[in-house]
Request: fold
Amino acid sequence: PSDATFNWMENNKLITKMKEGGDSLSKPRNIAFELYFRADTSRSAVATFATAKGYKTEQVTNAKATNAPYQLIVSKYTQVKIDTITVMSTELKKEAARHHGYYNGWEAKK
Reply:
């Protein structure tokens, strides 16, 4: 599948698991997105991008023993809907890739 289709499929899989686990998804909540980078400057650039797009920086840490040790977790308070999640994950994936980083998924706790 294309990158866009694969992204939609991954998001749909998580949403389906949430529904199967009894989450009605009716209430908005913080949706946290995890990203990793090779350089702190790249992480900072994406954090700036995310803030401008309405995301909140939740965590900035250094991971151990990895080729992308600079972690960034950003979140946005919204409904868990496939179209919304797909737009957000797509824009974060693209921006991370522009800065030689990668997107590692999302989570949304009840």
The two ends are 31 Å apart (CA to CA).
